[in-house]
Design a protein that fits this description.
The protein is an all-alpha fold. Among the domains are: about 40 residues, Arc Repressor Mutant, subunit A; about 45 residues. Helix content is about 55%, strand content about 0%. It is built from 8 helices and no strands. α2 packs across α3 and α5 crosses α6. The longest helix has 14 residues. It is elongated, with a radius of gyration of 32 Å. The relative contact order is 0.07.
Length: about 150
Amino acid sequence: MVKGVELTPRKKSVIVALDKEGYSSRNISIRLGFHQSTIIRFLQKYRRNGSMDRIKGRGRKKLSSVAQDRILVRSSIRNRKATSVELKRNWEEQTGVKASSRTVCRRLVEKGLLARRPRKKPLLTLNMRKNRLQWAKQHRNWSVEDWKKVEIEL
């Protein structure tokens, strides 16, 4: 995580140019308005890596492999109503991966599976059921010609 403001590519190139001209880190910091430790730290990284860009791929390695992630995705698709805690438990039993339920959520989001709560559908009331039965009884003897006359509103 970056503390403070990150150096822009333009400022980085100015720092390198001033360093090559022989300016001290103190003079560069005064001239550009950055703390001297920022200049020193950047120049050390520049000399070590030979590049002004940040090195990618740093950080902790993933707990699971690509194959183990596929197992998680398949079990999630098979049981769409499963919670992340249930999926975590099943995943741990199948693959031995000890991960948190939050990690399970992150893996699924990486694969394009987003968590959604199913919308609750109101149940039919007794009155609704009576009305539907009455309607069905009224229309049970209709012919195909009668049904063709029905207009559908979209």
